[in-house]
Amino acid sequence: LGGPDPLDYVSMYRNLGNPALNVPEHWHYVSFGLSDLYGDNRVHEFTGTDGPSGFGFELTFRLKRETGESAPPTWPAELMQGLARYVFQSENTFCSGDHVSWHSPLDNSESRIQHMLLTEDPQMQPVQTPFGVVTFLQIVGVCTEELHAAQQWNGQGILELLRTVPVAGGPWLITDMRRGETIFEIDPHLQQERVDKGIETDGSNLSGVSAKCAWDDLSRPPEDDEDSRSICIGTQPRRLSGKDTEQIRETLRRGLEINSKPVLPPINSQRQNGLNHDRAPSRKDSLESESSAAIIPHELIRTRQLESIHLKFNQESGALIPLCLRGRLLHGRHFTYKSITGDTAITFVSTGVEGAFATEEHPYAAHGPWLQILLTEEFVERMLEDLEDLNSPEEFKLPKEYSWPEKKLKVSILPDAVFDNPLH
Predict the structure, then answer these.
(1) How far apart are CA 115 and CA 104, in angstroms?
(2) Is the pTM above the cut of 0.85?
(3) Structural domain harbouring 161
(4) What percent of the chain shows pLDDT beyond 90?
């Protein structure tokens, strides 16, 4: 009806659990509105019954029922609206194994449960609707230490550990906001025997994050119209083409398939143009549309080799650089920062990644506002030494700058306000 909230409604059920499976009684919340409820193109573009309905998923949440509670608390509905608002505004979808760093107790109490992991709902299978397929992703509340473990290793691994600890979720991953201990405090062996070993063996399967980030091309004079500064933080940023946006999203979605060589989707010069170039690309834009076969002029899609670059991150994004280097690049993988405030993207790639447009000869390359940086294993090891203090954010004073002059690379960690109001 055009109201301010993205979700049409949230259903709340009293679930009796399953004592035989050690599943306690809880409240079960289900969102409506991320999928297409109407099929009339008012909210979501209807693309047929075979593809995803709307964004292709709805959110669910299971909250442990406290003794004496006769009605479900309503704060989970607000939480779902917040997540849905992010999805509608950014058009980034969620997948099982994803994490959301929230940095605040989910119910605004004093709880240690301050972040979220996402997984398939244990009771609700994907459904075929008249407007497409809908899957159900369950929100699982976690502590900060559990979120960090999911980032350093992988979300699915931590979810499996949570399932084995009844008070931390159990088989149906029910969130208990009164849980006062992390799974690593409950069972100290989990950190060393499962997580640390998993990080060492597998690396991280976190292939990218939405972040506050930007980049400058230092090899161009500021007055140059093509200067990447106008792309990253100017008043009218040039947008990524629909194809590039899809490639970045696909990179983030897929992460790394086990036992396969990591591949970045290739840049294709045959892009659809039509009306899509100068507006936010619709999540439903056909990437190979025959009705819009015009090709964007060559100068708009060419890949530029850059001599010298300056990367900018806020503190939370910067703290993930060691993970990007140690958990991804040293394992022959890639890692992408996708800006939440614009179309800027920064992808780090190792020499083992195929399909990248950055090469060892030209390690810095840009395609519009998408920057790729190829780092050799030797340079990664050196960067890890130089960036060691990023692992101790409590000792940090912003702004902080790191520089490798012979590599013509500079990294700055800046306050959030720089990204919230980039023209200052």
Answers:
(1) 7
(2) no
(3) 9-202
(4) 66
